[in-house]
Amino acid sequence: MERYSNPLKALLTASQREIERLKEQLTELREILEAIQQGELDALINMSQNHEQIFILMRAEEPYRLLVEQMSQGAVTLNLSGTILYCNQYFATILNLPLESLISSSVYQFVAPEDQPALRSALVQGSQEYCKTELVLTSPREGKPIPFHLEFKPLKIDHLQVICLIATDLTEQKEAENKLKATLQEREILLKELHHRVKNNLQIISSLLKLQAENIKDEKLAEMFYESQNRVRAMALIHQKLYQSKSLSQIDISVYIQSLVADLIRSLNSNTRRISVEVKIEEVLLNMDTAIPCGLIINELFYNSIKYAFPGNRQGVIRIELTKDGQSDELSLTISDNGIGLPENLDYQNTETLGLQLVGMLTRQLDGSLELQRGEGTTFNLHFRELPYRERI
Ligand SMILES: Nc1ncnc2c1ncn2[C@@H]1O[C@H](COP(=O)(O)OP(=O)(O)OP(=O)(O)O)[C@@H](O)[C@H]1O
Ligand SMILES: [Mg+2]
User: According to DSSP H, which parts of the chain are helical?
Assistant: First the structure.
């Protein structure tokens, strides 16, 4: 515009060619001006001297203002010290204050003293780059705290650096969140209660078996009752660990196995000090479908080792190890003893007795594979993976 501020001077000093060019430009500018006056133009793109494009939106202010006024979010322009330069009606309504009283007041008045440092740092960051935070704003009039999601963006109006703030009321979202949390908590309590009851019921069955075993004269028969009692107790322990666990659907198998082994040793009532037990279990979380067969297998094999591997006063070690391959997620369970070893003629996959039959069935249930190593004592290796959750109908 500087070039045409004194057209007379320009005309006097210009050459004929320049005069022609200026005339052409003048006609062009006249046409543009006419178009602007007629409302035919929305935008004007101009090439300034240093070739930068200036894009001027015509008649845009009103639609934009309407847009901001219709927003169901608070739109606020702040200066760097937090003074409100502009805000839309929504922001004023939600804070229950007249819009005029908000303009030129400080945004800090809505924030509790302990939250003011957070607001301050958001304003500092927001004057440089986009940032967001959650803060509770309290209207001085009504005093009801309102949780807000606040987004800050730097904005330059002419040469003035300001911050554009978009405030979203989170009251409804928080209420829905709280309701959901309450429902979830209720379900968790129910689930805990359920596991607790299942555990109690299994414990009753276990006690009944024990009582009956005590009345059985035949030692072999009594032992069978006693083993069944152990099996029921191993299952009860899973439910106990489940209601004690955080997730309620997965148990830390290392904690479970430690308790299972301790329980078994305690229940033996005999002197097992000549047998030492080494348990090396990685911290692995398993769902119930996997943990129950896994626990029952340990129960059978560990109990067998205690019962048969060290007859008389023979001393020895029983080892239980569980590792998980980080890449393939395959679990490897080893139960070994350095005792007398399985009878040579015993086909462990084809026994008359229930214990090893159960181990075979449970291995198939786990979709796993079982190997026996006969050497110094007995070693069983079980490879399996956590079973995927099966939808219940
Ligand atoms: N770790 C071991 N060391 C030595 N012998 C073992 C070992 N484990 C099992 N056995 C032998 O294998 C046999 C079969 O075991 P299995 O667990 O199937 O039956 P059980 O323990 O006799 O009875 P139950 O059906 O109540 O378990 C046992 O009777 C025992 O002779
Ligand atoms: Mg057995």
Answer: 7-13, 16-38, 61-70, 89-94, 99-102, 116-126, 171-214, 219-244, 253-268, 288-304, 354-365
